[in-house]
Amino acid sequence: MTDIAIHVKDLRKSFKATEVLKGVDFEVRRGEIFALLGSNGAGKTTTINILSTLLKPDDGSASVCGFDVGRQSEKVRESISLTGQFAAVDGILTGRENLVLIAKLRGVADAHKTADALLSRFGLSDAAKRRADTYSGGMARRLDIAMSLVGTPAVIFLDEPTTGLDPEGRLEVWKTAKDLADRGTTILLTTQNLEEAEQLADRIAILHGGKIIASGTLDELKKLFPPAKVEYIEKQPSLEEIFLAIVGQKEASK
Amino acid sequence: MKVLRDTSILFGRSMRHILRSPDTIITVAIMPIMFMLLFVYVFGGAIQTGARNYVNYLLPGILLIAIASGIAYTAFRLFTDRQKGLFARFHSMPVARSSVLWAHVLTSLVSNAISVVVIILVALIMGFRSSAGVLAWLAVAGILVLFTLALTWLAVIPGLTAKTVEGASAFSYPLIFLPFISSAFVPTATMPTVVRAFAENQPVTSIINTVRSLLNSEPVGNEIWIALAWCVGIAIVTYFFAMRAYKQTA
How far are the Cα atoms of A21, A222, B80 from residue A25, in angstroms, in the given order? Predict the structure, then answer.
């Protein structure tokens, strides 16, 4: 067992004439949260899709838990879970049925017990018998992440997990991600939200124009870039803090 | 074995979709039933088919219309799964890749079979009677399954490649209307030459004639081979393109 959970070397991928990945290199250590930061179209999802065996790279190598994504894709699929950009839940099934389905497909010994445990862990027990398409965005995302945890995969890919969520939903996802990492799961996170990377990631890599242009811990990155460069940060307005404070007070006074 | 296990789990899932939204089956059955009522009780009296029982004459065409509209839902279910990222989820799991598609194909066969049975029951109430024996009924079932399979593989292509929901199901409209220019409602002999040439040589006519002959215990002649050739031919070609589209699906 090495210390490296994900190894990506000189990864290249083109779609027709568009070169999306132009030689991407990075390594993710076991048990850390690694953020792949980049704007829209930077190639974050392409990278995740290659690592989760959905896409074949044109060149370069990628391995997860020591298994090559091309040659040992079945082994890779046993070690990972993908949480894509949109909550991939079956809206017609109930929350519980969604979890049982995944547990059965993963061959988990007691699918129903696993489902119930995850429902309570993610605060979905009350909604367990409701169809998933009646869930709020935050709840659907929680169910989505719960589905990814069935069978406790060693590595989880979170592809822009908070896109489209309200501030509370986002905080919920952040808490879940930290929780997972505390339990030893390796997380590869993609985001275009700088605050998210700052909040969650142990290490950050910036993917831009199909290459990793910088990587390291937040402190290391801060040293690389003069503060003036940070002006393009999509900082949430302080209205958010006001909103959360007001909503939080209401919840407390209930 | 893993393929069978995964297929049956995923088949159970999409059958649950159908049982949860019975409108899928009702909508599929209701339009052909309306056509059947319209043709039997409104136009039927004026149509000379040479058959004593017009319901008997009409039923095979009605069943094909039902299947042609039923497969639009197959395309719709595939489209939704792809759109919602469920395909990506299943494909990134240790699940046999072919199972994800075959579960949809099986669901299509079963849900269409249910619609067909519902329509036959309505036809029985309307006076449909068949002198066919068990073997002839099995042959009818076999041809209809083959026809459903051929159209299901066709439906997989837009289901996997369409950009919008409308695009995913629009392909079925021409198929639904194909039986109207065939021997489904009237004998082709009364049609003008060009229309007749089309009607007699398009796939639906040979299938309808074969099913009709089988249900009436009449000799099927060469027609059954033409019908089978069309079904198998369409199934092979569409399967090829469907699998090609599936390979490109993340």
Answer: 10, 21, 35
Measure the CA–CA gap between B81 and B101, rounded to whole angstroms. Answer: 11
> For chain B, which residues lie within 8 Å of any Cβ of chain A, measuring from their own Cβ?
6, 9-10, 13, 16-17, 20-21, 84-86, 88-95, 250
CATH assignment of A4-86+153-253, given 3.40.50.700, 3.40.50.800, 3.90.650.10, 3.40.50.300? 3.40.50.300
Q: How many CB pairs under 8 A join A and B?
A: 62
Phi first, then psi: what are they for A62, rounded to 5°? Answer: -145, 135
Residue A25 — φ and ψ, nearest 5°? Answer: -125, 130
The answer, for A93 touching chain B at a CB cutoff of 8 Å, is: yes
Q: What is the pLDDT of residues B191-205, one digit of tens each?
A: 899 999 998 889 999
3-state DSSP assignment of residue A52? coil
Which one-letter DSSP state was computed for residue A251?
Answer: H
The interface pTM score, or ipTM, of the predicted complex is 0.86
Query: The whole model's pTM is what?
Result: 0.86
Q: Could you give the count of Cα atoms lying within 13 Å of B221 in the half-sphere of its Cβ?
A: 7
Beta-carbon count within 10 A of B31 CB: 15
Residue type, A110: D
Q: In this complex, is the C-beta atom of A13 within 8 Å of any C-beta atom belonging to chain B?
A: no
Would you tell me how many other CB atoms lie within 10 Å of the CB of residue B180?
A: 14
The residue extents of the domains of chain B are 2-247
Cβ B88–A82 below 8 Å, yes or no?
yes
